[in-house]
Amino acid sequence: DSGVTQTPKHLITATGQRVTLRCSPRSGDLSVYWYQQSLDQGLQFLIQYYNGEERAKGNILERFSAQQFPDLHSELNLSSLELGDSALYFCASSPRTAWARNALGANVLTFGAGSRLTVL
Amino acid sequence: DQQVKQNSPSLSVQEGRISILNCDYTNSMFDYFLWYKKYPAEGPTFLISISSIKDKNEDGRFTVFLNKSAKHLSLHIVPSQPGDSAVYFCAAEKYNQGGKLIFGQGTELSVKP
C-alpha cells in the first residue's frame, strides 16, 4: 500500500457520460498530480495541484477538469466521454513545496494503484 | 513532443545476467532523472534517481548511468531476478516546473529462470 488511495478501481461507462475519479494523497503530502496512461503509452501528465491551487498543466483536454479540496483530496472530472478516453488514470502525491528550489534530491512521486476507465 | 524516450518496448534476459534498460531525452535542462518500476494492476513505484550533475548512482543491484553529452541514461540491474520482471519507466524533472515528472513509454523487462 503506497498510501495514495484512488477510487474507483474500475469504471465502465458510455460515450457522452461524465465521471469523477477521486484521489486521497499520502498523509502529509501537499502536491497531487494526475497522469493518464493509454494503451501501450507512457504516463502523460495532466495536471498538478499544490495545497488547493493549480500549479502546472499538461495536455489536459478542455473536457477534463480537476480540483484539490481543503482536506487535500483531489478529484478529476471527465465529461463528454469519448472512446479514446479509455485509459488508466493515476494519481500521485509528493511532499514537494511548489515554490522551493530543490536541494534535497529528486521529486519522488508516490503513485496510487490507478483507476481504469473503459468507455463503451 | 516526446522529451523522454524509451525505444525498446521489451527486453528479455536470463536470471543472474545483467539487464540494461535505456532512455534518451531531448531537453538538456532536466535536473533529475528517475526510474520507476510497475507491476500489473499496481501503480509505478520509485526505484532510483540521479542528479544531472552526476554520472552514476548505485543502490544495491541497481545502478543508473547518465551520459549528458549523449542525452542518454541507462539502468543496470545485476544480477537480474525473476521478481524484477515488470515495466520500467524512465522519468525526468525540471526544478522550475513544480515537480512534475515527464515519463518515457516504458520497457517491459522479462527475467527468465
General description of the model:
Chain A is mostly beta strands and 120 residues long. Helices cover 0% and strands 48% of the residues of chain A. Chain A contains no helices and eleven strands. In chain A, strands 2, 4, 5, 6, 9, 10 and 11 form a seven-stranded mixed sheet that branches. In chain A, strands 1-3-8-7 form a four-stranded antiparallel sheet, with no helix packed on it. Chain A is globular. Chain B has 113 residues and is mostly beta strands. Chain B contains no helices and eleven strands. The radius of gyration of chain B is 13 Å and the shape is globular.
Task: Specify Rg of chain A, calculated over alpha carbons.
Answer: 14 Å
Q: Could you tell me the number of beta strands of chain B?
A: 11
Count of extended strands of chain A: 11
Please outline the major beta sheet of chain A.
7 strands, mixed
User: What letter string, H or E per element, gives the SSE order of chain A?
Assistant: EEEEEEEEEEE
Work out the helicity level of chain A: under 10%
Concise description?
With about 120 residues, chain A is mainly beta.
Q: Which key terms come to mind for this protein?
A:
heterodimer, A: about 120 residues, mainly beta, 7-stranded mixed beta sheet, 4-stranded antiparallel beta sheet, 11 strands, about 0% helix, about 50% strand, globular, B: about 110 residues, 6-stranded mixed beta sheet, 5-stranded antiparallel beta sheet, about 55% strand
